[in-house]
Design goal:
With about 325 residues, this protein is an alpha/beta fold. The protein has 2 domains: about 5-125 and about 285-320, Rossmann fold; about 150-280, Rossmann fold (3-Layer(aba) Sandwich). The chain is about 40% helix and about 15% strand. The strands form 2 sheets. It has a 6-stranded parallel beta sheet, with helices on both faces. α2 (about 50-60) links the parallel β2 (about 45) and β3.
């Protein structure tokens, strides 16, 4: 059973979905289950609301292919534009999808709570990063006892929902005699004491993660954060905001906070027992994630009720009349 991922994947860092799907594609190629030629694939995996016109065209053309929709969100936190985007995503799902993949239980449950309809054939499968890049390093022996504990955060997006108010609070209130802190990616504004690493490619980011001790993650709403998974795969325990899918991803590999004062206290707690949390990190590798996708694909069949794609519903989608 050959897979084709129907998304334009960028070689440079470009958000969590792009990074994960690149890793999934490369793992599928390594296992000889990927086809660059759509005609020779049996499974077409399409992502969220990307390339919808192409998805609609190919669904009409390839009536025997199985179409699987990897969804994101829900996006309702963005306000009216997010609600509209959710409607488009799940209208596309109703027209095309033989199966639906959610990135977390939280994402699926939130979708149900918001009364968004999706394919009855669905599964929850977490993401994973490229293991050739994001992996643990060998522990250094005889670390200086008086060295500062190194904290790091990262975000590709500078959206306020990513928790920048927490990072700016740390910039003012973290004990910089005991800790140092770095930030990789795009911030909403500059920091005074937190070291800004700027935009890094995946290899550079992974190297920086392995040089730090603790990952700080304050994002409010995540379907399944790649930044969080990249840190965990590099062996960093996490001080993490207790929201959305974050606890589901971190499990016992970190400690959680609700507010800024609690965040400071939890950093101290994890710093004292870093090794315990590090040993409790449990995350699936990309080969296991591909296996989960493959198992789900094997349960699916073409939904013939969706093979009559009319001009009217295509126009409704393209004009946003959903």
């Amino acid at each position: 059973m050959k897979l084709n991922i129907l998304t334009e994947l960028k070689s440079e860092p470009w958000g969590g979905g792009n990074q994960f799907l690149k890793a999934l594609r490369d793992e599928s190629k390594r296992s000889n289950t990927y086809s660059e030629n759509i005609e020779n694939a049996q499974i077409i995996l399409f992502n969220s609301h990307h390339n919808p016109n192409r998805v609609l065209e190919l669904r009409k053309k390839f009536k025997k292919h199985i179409f699987v929709h990897r969804v994101d969100g829900p996006m309702s936190y963005r306000g009216r534009s997010g609600v509209k985007l959710d409607r488009k995503i799940f209208y596309l799902n109703s027209l095309v999808a033989d199966g639906t993949v959610f990135q977390s239980d939280w994402s699926r449950n939130q979708t149900i709570n918001e009364n968004l309809n999706f394919s009855s054939n669905n599964a929850v499968i977490h993401n994973a990063p490229d293991p050739r890049i994001f992996h643990k390093k060998k522990e250094k022996l005889n670390q200086p006892e008086n060295r500062k504990i190194k904290l790091i955060s990262s975000s590709w997006s500078n959206n306020p929902q990513k928790g920048f108010n927490f990072y700016h609070y740390l910039d003012k209130h973290l004990d910089f005699d005991k800790y140092s802190m770095s930030f990789a990616g795009n911030a909403d504004k500059s920091f005074n004491r937190i070291r800004m690493l700027g935009k890094l490619d995946s290899t550079e980011l992974a190297e920086q993660l392995r040089e730090h001790d603790i990952f700080i993650f304050a994002s409010e709403r995540e379907a399944c954060s790649n930044s969080l998974l990249e840190a965990l795969h590099c062996g960093l325990p996490v001080v993490c905001r207790d929201s959305s899918s974050n606890p589901e991803v971190v499990k016992k590999g970190g400690i959680f906070f609700d507010d800024k004062h609690e965040m400071l206290r939890k950093i101290d707690i994890l710093a004292k027992d870093n090794l315990k949390f590090k040993e409790n990190i449990r995350v699936k590798g990309i080969s296991e994630v591909l296996e989960d996708y493959t198992k789900f694909f094997s349960t699916l069949k073409v939904d013939n009720n969706k093979r009559k794609l009319t001009f009217n519903n295509k126009i409704r989608y393209r004009l946003g009349l959903v």
